[in-house]
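Hey all, sorry for the wall of text incoming. These are the two entities for the joint prediction.
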Amino acid sequence: MVIFKYKKFPMISDEVAYNGKVEGDVIVTKADAVINWIRSHSVWPMPMGLACCAIELMASAASRYDISRFGMEVMRFSPRQSDCMIVAGTVTYKMAEVVRRIYDQMGDPKWVVAMGACASTGGMYRSYAVMQGVDTIVPVDVYVSGCPPRPEALLDAMIKLQDKIGRESSLSNLRKTRGDRAG
Amino acid sequence: MATARADDMIDEEFSGALLEKHGFLSKRESIDCLTVDCPPDRLEELALSLRDEDGFDMLVDLSGIDHGEDAEPRFSSVAHFYSLVLRSYLRVHVACPDNEQPVIPSISGTFPAANWHEREAYDMFGVEFSGHPDLRRILMWDDYPYFPLRKEFPLAGIDTPLPADDVAEVTQASVEPAPMMGGPFVSAGEGPMSDSEPRALDESWTEESEKPQ
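and here's what came out:
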């Protein structure tokens, strides 16, 4: 009997030799594996739609590409309720302040995807008004190429982000945060 | 007029009558619609008359022009009016008398549509519109120290602090000149999409290899 057959997430399938008949309803695993599995399968994106990339972002959420297959369909326009900011479009210097403030308002843990050429590097806008890459003001986890990227490219980036979340040391990070708060 | 269209209902007679009515206007060469020069101190009067008496009831566009650092006059403003009755455009040029402190009267009292256009012209060229109800920057942030579409302003931009002090402090970021890498990046504007996508005009130089002098 195989419950976790997804090779994408080796922390589950490799570390748990689960046999329901022998072990009953108990799974032995690492806390990191469970936390990361939960987190990576319920990424709530904050759609930071700033330009045409946002149209492709909407297409990714619609039925043909259906981002909900990966548990990411809950796009929240409130930063308090989301944990992955998808910066989709051109970040102007005037907007940079807003992007950073929204990032600051998101609760931990949080991730950032720079979607498209503009968010990654400024793209074709080598101009006085455009920030040359959103990584100037927020830490970016995944960059997506394209102008704009197709929905497949965004989905690929989000799956890569799931991989990245899967490799995090979540438990020690949590302990560290609690220690920081206590101390 | 070189390209008079069939539905162009402004004929020589009408433009002659308009110029005669407003003696301060002077006609200007133009390949499309009727174009006139207007002295700045008569602009408000002209706008009111165009709207209420001459049938030009719609302001389509208003922008600024920098004719170059040595030009005289350096700055001017161009407004396009459209007449729904005559089905025709009228272009009005207004030159700023002063190159250092360019000021033009605002027509936003007569044509509310001019409000944001005048703010944009002020933002980009530093042309002030006297009598404007709320002349603030509209595209750049309030404290931005330059007028970016003036001829002496480099396309890449000039080092400037970020608009928000606290964000600048946390991120250590500032407004930096953009790397040009053979740019500006422009579209050829014609041909198949594979050829007309925006690309560097001069691909002979990059960040690594200096621009040939």
